[in-house]
Design brief:
CATH class of the largest domain: Alpha Beta
Order of helices and strands: EHEHEHEHEHEEHEEE
CATH superfamily of the largest domain: Formyl transferase, N-terminal domain
Number of helices: 6
Distance between the termini: 30 Å
Strand order of the largest sheet: 3-2-1-4-5-6-7-10
Shape: globular
CATH topology of the largest domain: Rossmann fold
Radius of gyration: 17 Å
Structural class: alpha/beta
Strand content: 15-25%
Number of domains: 2
Largest sheet: 8 strands, mixed
CATH architecture of the largest domain: 3-Layer(aba) Sandwich
Length: about 220
């Protein structure tokens, strides 16, 4: 019997990071199985990509709930339970989640953000990084809390910010880091290696890895 954690990915668009998670999970030794992809947007491009892998998909259109955010989330929650989902990964899911959903999936819900949290929460992270003149920028995978772009950090990856960078070139460099660290983060969570202790994630990184720009390496 497989001990792989049944995982759902939530998307709203093309699901760039979704592709990285699915690719990692094709390895049968990977501790998470991508069992479901749910979109809140009918016709999201990511749904077409999933079909190639034979992964089950579902669409729960938030617009059908007339501003009832919790009603939408209860329908989403029911879909996850019906498919025996154990972990949930957000991949470009453009909905702010209410405490109902966050609490229901506490410790089992992860997100990726294109910045080195707690810096640059919210949108336009690459533009803001350039405006502030930071020399390192990157991405963060974290457990989701009730606050936007908050929650215990699982893994981070950094890239240099070049004098010649635009938001587009910097964003492309960060996206490469995102595709590397999100599968690693899901692996840490699904295997039980990433544990929340005192509001922080302990993941057992080695002190010998401190030269890396991805931590834990």
């Amino acid at each position: 019997m497989s001990t792989r954690k049944k995982t759902a990915i939530l998307i709203s668009g093309r699901g760039s990071n979704m592709g990285a998670l699915i690719s990692a999970a094709l390895n049968k030794d990977y501790p998470a199985e991508i069992a479901l992809v749910v979109s809140n947007v009918p016709g999201a491009k990511g749904l077409e990509r999933v079909a190639e892998f034979g992964i089950k998909t579902a669409v729960i259109d938030h617009k059908a709930f007339a501003g009832d955010r919790e009603g939408f989330e209860k329908a989403l929650h029911a879909e996850l339970l019906d498919n025996n989902i154990e972990l949930v990964a957000l991949a470009g899911f453009m909905r702010l989640l209410t405490p109902f959903f966050v609490n229901a999936w506490s410790g089992r819900l992860i997100n990726i953000h294109p910045a080195l949290l707690p810096a640059f929460k919210g949108l336009a992270t690459h533009e803001r990084a350039l405006e502030e003149g930071v020399k390192l920028h990157g991405a963060t995978v974290h457990f989701v809390s009730a606050e936007m772009d908050d929650g215990p950090i699982i893994i981070q990856g950094a890239v240099p910010v070049l004098d010649t960078d635009t938001a587009e070139t910097l964003g492309a460099r960060v996206l490469g880091v995102e595709h590397a660290i999100y599968p690693k983060a899901l692996e840490l969570v699904a295997s039980g290696k990433a544990k929340i202790t005192g509001g922080r994630v302990k993941s057992g990184g080695s002190e010998n890895d401190t030269g890396q720009l991805v931590w834990p390496a």
